[in-house]
Description:
It is a single chain. By secondary structure, the chain is an alpha/beta fold. Helix 9 links the parallel strand 9 and strand 10 (249-253).
Amino acid sequence: MTSTAKKTKKWSPQDASDFYGLERWGAGYFSVGEKGDIVISPSGTGDGPQVSLPEVVKGILDRGLNMPVLLRIENILGSQIKQLHETFAEAIKELNYNGSYKGVFPIKVNQQEQVVEAIAQFGSQFDHGLEAGSKPELIAAISILENRNACLICNGYKDEEFIDLGLYATKMGLQCFFVIEIPSELDLILERAALIGVRPKLGLRIKLVAKAEGKWAESGGDGSVFGLNLSQIIHIVDRLKEEDKLDCLELLHYHIGSQIPNIRDIRAGVMEACRIYEELVKEGAAMGYLDLGGGLAVDYDGSRTNEPCSRNYSLDEYCYDIVETIATVLDKTGTTHPTIITESGRAIVAYYSVLLFNVLDVSSYVPQPIPKELPDTSNNLLENLFMTYNMVSPKDIQECYNDTLFYRDQAKQLFKHGQINIRERALAEDLFRHILIKISKAAEKLKHVPRVIQDINEALSDVYYGNFSVFQSLPDVWAIDQLFPVIPIHRLDEEPSRPAIIADITCDSDGKIALFPDANGPKSTIMLHDLKENEEYYLGVFLVGAYQETLGDLHNLFGDTNVVSIHINDNGTFEFDRELEGDSVEDILSYVEYDVKAIKQRIKRLAEDSIHKGFIKVKDRKVILRMFDEGLRGYTYFERE
């Protein structure tokens, strides 16, 4: 997002939409309404019902839940699954592809029960399956996946118990594929299958030479951790021939990245995998399925580029390129077209969730007015700063900025060595900020704003304190500098005027959002509105449905937020399908092995000792114990009285 708001005679909701980039990253699900509210369109097409996000917030608060809240919009989940399958179906039909498409959701992307259940429910009509990489995920998948035409892909390392679970799922009619990651897994699978009396459905995970750009580039290439090399694949094929089990080998799988921004890398991976696929067919393997893994990216910043938080292709291009590439490679040898599987997790669930929170306070450094006369001093520092202030003009922006930085650093050194006093140092800081403010205003008259203005606005930015924890709800912001769109959900018919960063309520300097998406590259500030007295100011962080919920930690013992799931009806009303209260203080303390009963007993002993030593009166004991009891039952986040 740009660091200075667009200057118009009258700010409009369309200006806000352009400024915050909703049409670039919102995928049709989010827009700015005529009243300046964020509007949800669950179909993503602009047609159909629309709901005001602030109205949803009002409904949440009226039901007694406090901010922060993770909002899940169930219709969006269904829309994403539908779009993916319908787009592949169109490509398959147009390109005369003789196979079909089946989507699979990797549970690790969002393991929450209601999310996986909703995917299984919405995806049932499309035979959309699940992928499990551990025993807990596999048990969850078997219990939820009722559609026997959908695929259940078993990735990851597999012990005897894991394999037995999958084999019994196969025996019950589920399309359960064991994807072999290391050669030693094959013998164990064959051994357990013989004991249980079922022919296993097998797949191979290969290491491709192809690598993708982005943060997860190490998922592909010869040095990737998971997968088999060609020598190991040949060994497994020969072993299956010996056991007369080559017909069990039906699937080839690879994975070169979670968020692949460049369509060229996707095509390269498909081409290489197809060559190995057709060679396995020549070896006599049954085959029939080509699993491309994940990689369908989300355009978090709306730039449609090769940047790690973007993608340079549309969903249409993604589906058509995959189908066309497979057909082109396999048609050369007359190989039957396989069923295409993609394990798109991020793209399915990202749009589904929005983190909502209120702003508690703002920290601003407003400099003292410039004095009419400078104090007498033995150093010319203040006079130089004052002269620089008077020199600021549009044509001298860079020179004045350079001089100001020099004098600011000089002030620090002079104070450190006792050559100016604390009042002179404070006045130097005030003059420094006055110069930056004047430079920023002068830049508004320029057609091309210098890059240095970005640094100036960062220095002048306010700190908006949000009622949430980055480490709990947005761990990728802290861990890998992931960009998520952040925007006020109301007052968008008013022009924002304050450059800001957003701090959470943890006592940690890393607990902040200080990078914001923009079509021209990440920005270090976001423009927000002044707070109004006695009126809450709400922000939303969008596209947070993938990975954030289960990667979060308990930094400062802030727990899970309240969670609300809504369904938007065709008539524009909405229903609260599910409400999950966030962790209480008592819950969180138990997670980190505190005995809550013992805590209460210790507080009671402290209260008794305080009575005995005269710190409190007997009647105070009841009030104090009640307060602690309420505190243990309370929300871990800030609660308004």
